[in-house]
Amino acid sequence: MHRLPFWLVVTGTTLLLGTFAAAIFALAPWESSAARPRSDLEYELDLSTQPAEMVATYHYMEDHPAIGKQIPCYCGCGEALGHRYLLDCFVIRPGVYSDHASGCMVCGNEATDVRRLTDEGQDARAIRNWIDTEYAKYGPPTDTPR
After folding, report:
1. Which one-letter DSSP state was computed for residue 41?
2. Distance from C-alpha of 55 to C-alpha of 46, rounded to nearest angstrom
3. Are 70 and 31 in contact (CB under 8 A)?
4. pLDDT of residue 116 exceeding 90
5. 33 has a pLDDT exceeding 90
6. In degrees rounded to 5, what are phi and psi of residue 93?
7. d(Cα 27, Cα 71) in Å, to the nearest integer?
8. From residue 53, how far is each of 15, 50, 98, 131 by CA, in Å?
9. How many CA atoms within 13 Å lie on the side-chain side of 70?
10. What is the pLDDT of residue 23?
């Protein structure tokens, strides 16, 4: 019986596990937000120091990335911070929160409206249309594809 050298078994196993881990990460729903760098103008927010209502909004946005990626933000953060959509105002990557939305009335109100409209049974297109109409008065939106 022929046995492979130990170093070859370890190297092959490591490569296989690394490839598997990379594939799982690439398929995760956060794949496009996981790599978002934190802007020099925003900091990580410790949710344990925030009011319960704000924490609930942050968790809602984190738990619903699909809708958060379809809604533009109208506070100017697209140009100022490089945000791509409303989700970026709340979450830098899973478990790491941006302080931006904690001090921005537009972001907070948009997220509250998104949650309310979702709870009312509106689909993403209807919510996007409502947000676009209601918030366009605040300024240019993030460059969020339809």
Report:
1. T
2. 10
3. no
4. yes
5. no
6. -155, 165
7. 22
8. 45, 8, 16, 21
9. 15
10. 39
pLDDT higher than 60, residue 27: no
CA distance 146 to 50: 32
The string of pLDDT tens digits covering residues 121-145 is: 999 999 999 999 999 999 999 999 9
Other residues' Cβ atoms within 10 Å of the Cβ of residue 55: 16
Residue among 40, 27, 146, 21 nearest 92 (CA): 40
User: Which pTM value belongs to this model?
Assistant: 0.75
Mean pLDDT of the chain: 83
Length of the chain: 146
Q: By the 8 A CB rule, do 140 and 76 touch?
A: yes
Q: Which long-range contacts (CB under 8 A, 24 or more apart) does 78-81 make?
A: 78/140, 78/141, 78/142, 78/143, 79/140, 80/39, 80/41, 81/39, 81/41, 81/42
> Each residue of 66-105: pLDDT tens digit?
999 999 999 999 999 999 999 999 999 999 999 999 999 9
Closest by CA to 67, choosing from 42, 91, 41, 38, is 91
